[in-house]
Specification:
The chain is mainly alpha-helical and 117 residues long. The protein has one domain: Helix Hairpins, CATH 1.10.287. Helices cover 74% and strands 10% of the residues. The protein has two helices and two strands. A two-stranded antiparallel ribbon has the order 1-2. Helix 1 runs antiparallel to helix 2. The longest helix has 44 residues. The protein is rod-shaped, with a radius of gyration of 25 Å. The model has no long low-confidence stretch (mean pLDDT 91).
């Protein structure tokens, strides 16, 4: 295998591993976003002035509005990170498709020149 193909194949494998890592991060962020959204929805339904929030291994009583604000900020941050991961994922997919095409085209046998009759 020519060295150019080996380099492209190695780059392909690195990019594939990076894509898998980014996809896993994206999935975790999606779960966080859904969880935060559900918590915000439940806080929106309550008429309580104070709620409990987990801080480390303990629960503390806090104002509902304060918790809503914190959760909203966390959700905004997670959603922004999700958009960034999506862009990275799309970019890597395009890169992988391009590398795959280059590797496949370089492995096709050259057509033999036609003999004159």
């Amino acid at each position: 295998m020519p060295e150019i193909n080996q380099a492209k194949f190695a780059e392909f494998e690195r990019s594939r591993a990076q894509l898998m890592n980014i996809s896993a991060q994206k999935q975790q962020m999606q779960i966080q976003s859904v969880t935060l959204g559900q918590a915000l929805e439940e806080l929106g339904k309550t008429k309580e002035k104070k709620v409990y929030k987990a801080v480390g291994n303990i629960l503390i009583q806090t104002e509902t509005g304060k918790v809503k604000k914190e959760l909203k900020e966390k959700k905004d941050t997670v959603d922004l990170r999700l958009k960034t991961l999506q862009k990275q994922e799309d970019s890597l997919i395009n890169k992988l498709n391009k590398l795959k095409s280059e590797i496949e085209s370089s492995q096709k046998p050259e057509p033999e020149p036609q003999k004159e009759k």
